[in-house]
Design goal:
The complex is a heterodimer of chains A (about 80) and B (about 260).
Chain A lengths: L1 E8 L6 H12 L11 E7 L5 H16 L5 E9 L1
Antiparallel strand pairs in A: 1-2, 1-3
Chain B lengths: L5 E6 L6 H11 L3 E6 L10 E4 L19 H11 L3 E5 L1 H8 L6 E3 L7 E9 L15 E8 L3 E3 L2 H9 L3 E6 L18 E5 L5 E4 L17 H23 L17
Parallel strand pairs in B: 1-2, 1-3, 3-4, 4-11
Antiparallel strand pairs in B: 5-8, 6-7, 6-9, 9-10, 10-11
């Protein structure tokens, strides 16, 4: 089973790296860019699990290690299997 | 010198301020000091644990995110829960945040640069075991060297920190003014160091071990180490006195400002 986890800063937290990317895009003439938020992406391969087990395991791993819940939020999905 | 306090400096793979910290404690402050390997589970009866600066476990994922799972950290958690003094410097502060021993989190510096320079911080609370040798509002010159030192806490948490006087050090200019320029990394409320609610765990981004000898430009960092030594000595003395007066009830060894425990 393959899962994908996206971690990004919470909307309430300033994202200076996202701001820098936005500024570069503006400099390059992409004036329609209103905002940029950046984050991290994980693709994790799991031994075949029941969907229910994955639903327990993935948020646990994300909260414990992959994201810092004080500043970050995450979403995840099963992309294979 | 008769009895000294015993300090333990934790060494993670990637720590790089461990020897500086050891040197200052042993050769400048003249205290017994030992290294504690991150895979050990024995704190060797130290009176104070210091998590030094560096790039523990490569700082992969987030600064301090992996180091907090090192075996020694379980012992540090227990030690802190029992009232033991824990000081995290720079990466050590980041580890304490990741471990949940201190509130808040670190973001990348607001200018997206690694900042390595002398800064001024002022003592906002001199009633902690880590700052009691200083005066309230005393300005200290201590260097910083970090990429992720932009302190963040959600609004409720920040208000709580202010209310409980947990903000011990704030970035300021040389006159102690909280100017925008002085807050080089963009920390909320100019936070350079915070203490936990119980008062026995402190994290700070500036490096007192790099500013403890005049020949290196500043000896202001000694205030932090001297505070710890004074606090521990007083605690040891009062324990001895109490042992002699058995009719008195046993008093908590925690400092008096921890009324809410």
């Amino acid at each position: 089973m393959k899962i994908r986890i996206l971690v990004s800063l919470k909307p309430s937290v300033l994202d200076p790296q996202g701001q820098a990317v936005k500024n570069v895009l503006h400099t390059l003439g992409y004036k329609s860019v209103k905002d940029v938020r950046q984050g991290k992406f994980f693709e994790i391969e799991l031994e075949s699990l029941e969907r229910q087990e994955a639903e327990k395991l993935v948020p646990e791993m994300a909260n414990k290690v992959l994201a810092n819940p004080i500043i970050e939020k995450f979403t995840w999905e099963i992309i294979e299997g | 010198m008769n009895e000294t306090m015993k300090f333990g400096v934790v060494v993670f793979p990637g720590s790089n301020c461990d020897f500086d910290t050891f040197h200052v404690l042993q050769n400048v402050m003249r205290q017994e000091t030992v290294f504690l390997w991150h895979k050990d589970s024995d704190l060797q009866n130290v009176d104070c644990v210091i998590l030094p600066g560096g790039f523990s476990c490569g700082d992969y994922l987030r600064s301090g995110a992996f180091a907090r799972f090192s075996p020694i950290m379980a012992e540090v958690q227990k030690f802190a829960a029992a009232g033991g003094l824990v000081l995290g410097i720079c990466n050590g502060f980041q580890i304490l945040l990741e471990a949940g021993l201190l509130p808040g989190a670190m973001l990348r510096n607001k200018n997206l640069k690694f900042i390595c320079q002398h800064v001024y911080i002022k003592i906002d609370n001199n009633k902690t075991p880590f700052s009691q040798a200083g005066k309230k509002n005393q300005v200290l010159s201590i260097p910083i060297a970090h990429f992720d030192g932009n302190y963040y806490a959600p609004p409720e948490m920040l208000a709580e920190l202010e209310r409980k006087k947990q903000i011990v050090f704030r970035y300021c200019d040389e006159n102690g003014q909280l100017t925008e320029e002085a807050n080089v990394n963009g920390s909320l409320h100019h936070i350079a160091g915070v203490v936990n609610e119980q008062g026995n765990v402190l994290g700070m981004m500036p490096h007192p071990e790099r500013a403890s000898e005049k020949i290196l430009g500043s000896a202001d960092g000694q205030v932090i180490f001297q505070s710890i030594i004074d606090y521990l000595e007083k605690k040891t003395d009062s324990r001895k006195k109490k042992a002699g007066r058995i009719t008195r009830p046993v008093v908590s060894p925690l400092p008096p400002h921890i009324g809410n425990l």
